[in-house]
Specification:
Number of domains: 1
Order of helices and strands: EEHEEEEEEEEH
Strand content: over 45%
Low-confidence stretches: none
Largest sheet: 5 strands, antiparallel
Number of strands: 10
Distance between the termini: 39 Å
Helix content: 10-25%
Strand order of the largest sheet: 3-4-5-6-7
Mean pLDDT: 90
Shape: globular
Radius of gyration: 13 Å
Length: 103
């Protein structure tokens, strides 16, 4: 399973892709992602079994593209999103928590 960058069309294994995720916004349920190759930034939504990509409009994400990832799971926490696939897991912290930890 390879996940694409819509900016440069590079493809990434799940571990490399999810390690590049950052800034979970619990209010809008969006994850920010920056491509390790070209620097393209996308916002995405993690669903059970797939990722949703689109465009922010009026405070919500209009999903245009979906990438199926069988077995993908998510769990919302207070200040982070936990993503898991098979035996691997990634934590995407909210920006609020990152800023609070910097003081």
């Amino acid at each position: 399973m390879l996940i694409p960058c819509f900016g440069c069309e590079s493809r990434f294994r799940p571990d490399e892709y999810f390690r590049a995720c950052h800034d979970y916004n619990r209010g809008t349920d969006l994850v920010a992602w920056t491509c390790p190759r070209c620097g393209n930034q996308d916002e995405l939504r993690v669903f059970p079994g797939e990722l949703g990509f689109g465009y922010s409009r009026e405070g919500r994400l209009d999903i245009c593209d979906r990438v199926r990832i069988p077995g993908l799971r998510r769990r919302r926490q207070d200040l982070r999103l936990d993503i898991s696939l098979d035996e691997e897991a990634w934590r995407v912290s909210s920006r609020l928590r990152q800023l609070a930890g910097a003081h």
